[in-house]
Amino acid sequence: MSIKQIREDIACVFERDPAARNTFEVMTTYPGVHAIVHYRIANWLWLKNLKWLSRLLSTFSRWMTGIEIHPGATIGRRFFIDHGMGVVIGETAEIGDDCTLYHGVTLGGTSWNKGKRHPTLKDGVVVGAGAKVLGPILVGDNARIGSNAVVTKEVPAGVTVVGIPGRIVQKTSSEQDSRRKAMAEKMGFDAYGMTDEMPDPIARSIHNMMDHMHAVDRKIDAMCKALHALGDHSCDEALPELEKETFVSLSERCGDMAEGEATAGQTGSGQESQAVNKDT
Q: According to the model, what pLDDT value does residue 239 have?
């Protein structure tokens, strides 16, 4: 334990929480900060072989903050727990520098055997609210664990994991993103503001359609060039521009569909209620 570490733990709050106003407020009202300060002291006692006293302090910290950190855990510098209620960090968990955990996160074990049984988080990892990272697995540098995900397998550096069980969401290349954006602009269609990190099947289908249309465009351009070389100028005429009004944004369509389904559901419920009233 060092005063420098505690100062860094407090200072990093201002980088990751826009609601933080001043140091006094952070030190007196942030349970995540209280929990990490208690942990630093309890861990120092644990390493000095004062096991019972360190566990007593960690238990007191759990009562005060709702955050349970085993004093035997290893936590790096500039660690931040936002909100914090329900966070559990096991004895053999290891957390690198500049990591962030949100409320309801569990770094737990899957075995009752002694030895390493909790996860290792490398530098810069962010774990979303309610996520469970279980077992002696490694989560790579700057990885992101989505809210409520359940992760039981190793996570490579720099990826995002979502869902139950946790699955990796791959990023597309910047070149592929640029092609899709150009195709969307050509069509006059805003590709619904979605990113490839969002596991949406409709988004994936639209992206596949964009890729297919780009491939068709390339083939048509190649055929037109070949025909032009043979003296056929039928491809010289420009294609008609697509009207933006032709395309309705996906969000508007989904909103109309959802509204229609809700209306249909309400109508159906009303008809059922009327039928029940008649029967009674």
A: 66
Q: Minimal CA–CA distance to 215: which of 173, 179, 171?
A: 179
Ordered structural domains, the chain, with CATH? 3-169 (2.160.10.10), 174-279 (no CATH)
Closest among 71, 10, 62 to 40, alpha carbons compared: 71
pLDDT, one tens digit per residue, over 49-100 is 999 999 999 999 999 999 999 999 999 989 999 888 999 999 999 999 999 9
**Residue found under tokens 């359609």:** 209
Model's pTM, two decimal places? Answer: 0.59
What percentage of the chain reaches a pLDDT higher than 90? 33
Residues in the chain with pLDDT values less than 70: 1-2, 170-207, 210, 238-280
Full DSSP string of the chain: --HHHHHHHHHHHHHH-TT---HHHHHHH-HHHHHHHHHHHHHHHHHTT-HHHHHHHHHHHHHHHS-EE-TTSEE-SS-EEES-TT-EE-TT-EE-TT-EEETT-EEE-S--SSS--S-EE-TT-EE-TT-EEESS-EE-TT-EE-TT-EE-S-B-TT-EEETTTTEEEPPPPHHHHHHHHHHHHHHT---TT--TTS--HHHHHHHHHHHHHHHHHHHHHHHHHHHHHTT--TT-SPPPPPPGGG---HHHHHHHHHHHHHHHHHHHHHHHHHHHHHH-
* Contact between 131 and 105 (Cβ < 8 Å): yes
